[in-house]
Design goal:
The structure is a homodimer.
Chain A lengths: L6 H8 L3 H8 L9 H14 L5 H8 L4 E7 L4 H5 L2 H14 L3 E7 L9 H5 L5 E5 L6 H8 L4 E4 L9 E4 L1 H14 L5 E4 L7 H16 L9 E2 L5 H12 L7 E4 L2 H13 L9 E3 L16 E3 L2 H16 L9 E3 L2 E3 L16
Parallel strand pairs in A: 1-2, 1-3, 3-4, 4-5, 5-11, 6-7, 6-8, 8-9
Antiparallel strand pairs in A: 10-12
The structure holds a DNA duplex.
Chain lengths: ~350, ~350
DNA sequence: CTGAAAGCGCTTACAG
DNA sequence: CTGAAAGCGCTTACAG
C-alpha cells in the first residue's frame, strides 16, 4: 500500500487545521463552519481519497463500533448450522442500521468454552451475542456482573442476562393444536434433544399443555427423546410404532429429528399423513423439499439475529431496556405431512 | 464497566516500567528480563485481570489482525446461503490459526456493490475475501492495484486477483462420466445459471468435454438453462421431457435447480432413476434427504473458506504466493438418483 | 537488564 | 468560526 493520507494531509491541502477537518468530516453539530471552508475540506478529502483511520478513531473514542457473534459448536452442530445464515444476516442487518460491524467468532471444539472472553476484555468489541450459552460459564456471569453488554441467543435459566429466543412452548402448542384440530386424539411426541436442554423442556411442556387444553391425559409412553440428529428420530419413531397401540400423529420437536422419523415410517411402509401425521419444529431449509413436505413450526432465524443485535446495541448505547427476555413468536407452516392439505387426516384414535 | 486496568497499572503493581510490561506480555524475543521480574509482571497482570487494549495495539502496530468476508447478495441468494456456514467456518478456522479475527460483511440489495471498500480504505481490516465479485466493480480493481490484500471467492475473468474456487469444469466432467459409465448415451444438461456466470460456462464446458471424450456429439437441443432456483429447474426438465426424443439422463449443474427437475419428473409420473437418471452439483444439505437422494458433485465449502483465508493471510504477511488461482477438487457423491446404487441404470438410448 | 520519551492518527475541550 | 495542545493506551527505538 502506498502511504495513506492522514487528516494532516487533508488539512494542509484545504488550508485549515486538523480540528476543522475532523469537525467537517464528522459533521459535528452545533459548530458553525463557513460553507466555503466546509466545501474545501470535503473536496480535499475526496481528492486525496481520504478515509479516517479506524484504529485511531477507536482508540480516541473508546468505542469499537463492533459487536461479536459468538457461536458455540456442540453436539447440536448440524442442527444449529441450519440457522447460522439467517441469524448472522439478521444481526448484520441490524448492526448496519446502527453503524456497527459484526465479528463472527465460532468456538471450536478444541477450545475452552470461554475462549471468547478475550474479545470482551481486550476491547475488541463493544458487546457480544452469545449463541448457545453454557450454564457452567462463570466468565460469562463475571462479565455480565461487571456490566459488559451481553445478549444471549437461547436461554440460561437462573441468570438475568438479556436474551432473545423463540417462544418454544407456544410453538409446540401450535403444532399440537393443529394435530388436535385435524381430529387426532392419540398424539405422540419426539423431543428435539435431551431434557437437559431448556428448549427441549419447553417444547415438551407445550405439548403437554396443548393436550391438557383438549382434555387429553398426558401419557408418558407416547413420548420419546431425540438427540438433534436424524438417527435419533428414526429410533424414536420405531419405538413409537412398536407400541401396542401406536399414536396416529406425532409431534417431532425438531425437523432434523423428524427427517429420521419420516425415514422410519417409510422403511416400515407407513404412509404419511394417511397412516401417521407428522409435524416438525424449526422449519429448516430442507423441510419443504421432503416427501411428503414437512408441516412444521417456523423459527424466525433472521428475526432472532436482528432482535439480538438491536437489543445489544441499545444496551451498549446506555439504553437499559426492560422488555427482556425477548421471545419471538413462531408460526405454523402447513405442508403435506399432517394431512391438512389433502383434507384426509387420519381420524382414528 | 468499571475502569479497565492499563499497562500503567500493571507496571505500578509490579514495580516496573510500562516498557517492561509490554516486553514481558508480548514475549518479545532477544530481550533478557530476569525471571523474577517476568514473574512479577505476569502475576500483576493476572491479579488485575489485565488485557491490553486492542484499539491501542492496532493503532501502534498498524495492523488490525482482522480479515473481512464480504458477502454479496444477488439473484443467487438462496443458492449461496447454503454455503455460508461452511465457508465462514472454514475462513474463521484458518484465521484463528494465524491469530486473525473475521469480520462478516454482507452487501445488502439496497447498497452499492462497492459498499465494502470503506472497510479497506478505513483500515478496519488488513485484507478481505470477496465472495461473489462483480465484474464491473472498479473499486475492486483500484484497491488491488494499490496492493491491498484481496482474495476472491469465485472468479473474475480478466483480473489477475488471487482467487479460490472449485474446479467447475472437472466437477461437471466427473458427473457426466458417471452417467456415461452407467450406460447412458443420450445425456441432457440443465445449467445452474445463465451463461453470464463463469461457473455456469465452466460446468457446461465440462459436460461438453465429457461427451467428447466418449465420442458423443454435443447436441444443443439437450441443453437447457437454469437460473439458480427450483422453478427454473422444473421448467427446464419439462422442456427436456417434451422433446421428441428425450434424454435418458440429465446432469443438472445445481442441486437447487435439480430439486425442481425432480419435481417435474415426479409430476409427470416418471421414476428416478429408472426412467431418468439425474446428477446434481453442489451437494447442498438438502440433497441427501431428497427422494430419491440426489447423486451430486460435492463442493467443499469449508475448504474454500479455509483456503481463501489462508491465502489472504499469506498475502497480508508479505508472502506473495504464485500458486494462484487456487482450484479445489470436487468429489462425486453417489446416492440414489443416478441408478448406480440399485444396479439398475436406465440403459436405453 | 530497565526506564523516559516519542509517536501511531485521530478527537475534543479550550483558547483565541 | 478556527487553531494549538493534550490525550486515548499501547509499542519501540534509544539511552542509560
Amino acid at each position: 500500500m502506498p502511504d495513506r493520507p492522514t487528516s494532516r494531509d487533508v488539512a494542509r491541502l484545504a488550508g485549515v487545521s486538523r480540528t476543522t477537518v475532523s469537525l467537517v468530516l464528522n459533521n459535528v453539530p452545533d459548530v458553525h463552519i463557513s460553507p466555503e471552508t466546509r466545501q474545501r475540506v470535503l473536496e480535499a478529502a475526496r481528492q486525496l481519497n481520504y478515509y479516517p483511520d479506524a484504529s485511531a478513531r477507536r482508540l480516541v473514542s473508546g468505542k469499537t463500533s463492533t459487536i461479536a457473534l459468538v457461536w458455540h459448536r456442540g453436539p447440536d452442530r448440524t442442527y444449529r448450522d441450519a440457522f447460522l445464515p439467517g441469524l448472522l444476516q439478521g444481526a448484520t442487518h441490524a448492526a448496519r442500521r446502527y453503524g456497527y460491524y459484526v465479528l463472527f467468532r465460532p468456538i471450536e471444539s478444541d477450545e475452552p468454552d470461554d475462549a471468547w472472553v478475550e474479545l470482551a476484555r481486550g476491547r475488541h468489541t463493544d458487546g457480544l451475542i452469545l449463541s448457545g450459552p453454557r450454564s457452567d460459564d462463570t466468565a460469562l456471569l463475571d462479565l455480565h456482573r461487571e456490566g459488559f453488554p451481553l445478549v444471549l441467543h437461547g436461554q440460561l435459566p437462573g441468570a438475568d442476562i438479556p436474551s432473545v429466543d423463540v417462544d418454544n412452548e407456544r410453538g409446540a402448542m401450535i403444532a399440537v393444536r393443529h394435530l388436535l384440530a385435524l381430529g387426532h386424539r392419540r398424539i405422540g411426541m419426539v423431543t428435539n434433544a435431551p431434557l437437559a436442554y431448556t428448549a427441549s423442556r419447553q417444547r415438551l411442556e407445550g405439548y403437554r399443555r396443548a393436550l391438557e387444553e383438549a382434555g387429553i391425559p398426558f401419557d408418558e409412553a407416547l413420548v420419546r427423546y431425540g438427540n438433534f440428529d436424524e438417527e435419533s428420530g428414526r429410533q424414536a419413531m420405531e419405538a413409537l410404532l412398536a407400541l401396542a397401540e401406536p399414536p396416529t400423529a406425532v409431534f417431532v420437536a425438531s425437523d432434523m429429528v423428524a427427517i429420521g422419523a419420516l425415514r422410519a415410517l417409510r422403511e416400515q411402509g407407513r404412509r404419511v399423513p394417511e397412516d401417521m401425521a407428522v409435524v416438525g419444529f424449526d422449519d429448516i431449509a430442507t423441510s419443504r423439499y421432503l416427501i411428503p413436505a414437512l408441516t412444521t413450526v417456523h423459527v424466525p432465524a433472521f428475526g432472532l439475529g436482528w432482535s439480538a443485535a438491536e437489543l445489544l446495541i441499545r444496551i451498549i448505547e446506555g439504553d437499559t431496556p426492560n422488555e427482556t427476555p425477548v421471545r419471538l413468536e413462531t408460526e405454523l407452516v402447513v405442508r403435506e405431512s399432517c394431512g391438512a392439505r389433502s383434507g384426509d387426516a387420519g381420524k382414528r384414535g
